[in-house]
Amino acid sequence: MHDAQCLIYRGPDKVFRGREICYGYNEDSLTIYDVTNKKAPVILSNTSYEGAAYTHQGVVLDPQNQQYLLLDDEYDEYGKVGPGIPGNPITYIWDISSLRAPKQTGLYKSATRGIDHNQYVANGFAYELRHRFPCA
Q: CA 74: distance to chain centroid?
């Protein structure tokens, strides 16, 4: 796992409300864990996506409702795979209403070239750090 975000779950999947849920960014997938019992964590889902090259990091958009998540893949642009083929950073949008069956529902393609690295949400805006790389 490269990165993770852990929250007390308040989202729409009623079975897991009040439990400690971690969203793991695991090289080629989004993996969701229930870590409420530290001695026996449970993998709820492990889901890949078109263009998976190096799932780097992500963030739940609204920590109160916890229905959507943004994910960045650090190498899809660099490796020119999936939606990242043109070299523009891709932000993958996920519906995490069901923790056992998250769905990648869309994406945002930046107008500039580069490699997306980390995303943060503050005051209703998503911010993303990027690396520049030479484009041929």
A: 11
Nearest-angstrom CA–CA distance, 114 and 128: 11
The two beta strands, 3-8 and 20-25, are antiparallel
pTM of the model: 0.90
What is the tens place of the pLDDT at every residue in 79-106?
889 999 998 899 999 999 999 999 999 9
Scan for tokens 């899809």, then name that residue: 76
**What values do phi and psi take at 19, rounded to 5?**
-90, 160
Rounded distance between C-alpha atoms, residue 5 and residue 2, angstroms: 11
Q: Residue 34: what residue type? A: D
pLDDT of residue 136: 44
Collapsing DSSP to helix, strand or coil, 39 comes out as coil
Q: What is the 3-state secondary structure (H, E, C) of the chain?
A: CCEEEEEECCCCCHHHCCCEEEEEECECCEEEEECCCCCCCEEEEEECCCCCCCEEEEEECCCCCCCEEEEEECCCCCCCCHHHCCCCCEEEEEECCCCCCCEEEEEEECCCCCEEEEEEEECCEEEEEEECCCCC
